[in-house]
Design brief:
alpha/beta; about 15% strand
Length: about 260
Amino acid sequence: MRPPLFDIAANLTAPAFHADLEPVLARARAAGVVSLVAAGTTVDDSERAVALAQAHRGYVWCTTGVHPHYVASCDEQSIPRLRALAGADGVVAVGECGLDFFRDLSPRPTQERWFAAQMQLGCELGLPLYMHERDAHARFLAMVREFRPQMLRGVVHCFTGDAAALRAYLDLDLHVGITGWICDERRGRGLQELVRVVPRERLMVETDSPYLIPRTIVPKPKSGRNEPAHLPWVVEMVARCRGETTEEVAASTTQVAREFFGLTA
């Protein structure tokens, strides 16, 4: 029997899943994924994520937010719309929100404005913050520190930073999400070392599918598309790096995710 797994980040509304979402979810179930979170990346996409969660109640959950790549499209109706969506069944967090200074697909001042607005919304609604940070650690940290006293909980999803960034996030009692980046023998070596020091009660796992397919998968899928069914490969590498069994990592990360998203009742 496969250990139960919780995928905290799957971009199920992405075009890559439009043609075969039901088989994707069936394969996830078969792989032991007992719950997953569909991330909202724009207001319209958040609406689709809510619809998906409601179509698969108790299995798919979702977030509502605007990714930093897309905040240039935000207007005065964005936060009211997100506030309304956040009250829907199946919504467990506000986001994906944050800062991305790697690609700068939205101007940095615009990213900061809407990151602050979404953090304020999460604090107002008493929902966890589901956050993205890339090449923006100093500014991201300063902004999160401002809101952390009001924040229910927060996760830096798809963590790929260095030791100083990890230490700073843990000092703020933030959670971290680990993806298939850890399975990359080229880029993931630093993360393989750092995952050892993440406290069990702060550690969660994710695929961030359809991106970041684990390079350890054998045989490698011909499509190159990642999906929630590949989460066991992430768990296996996390377990190997931490000196734990896959069953231990699966059980602890699933329990932590359920507590983080308020699904323990």
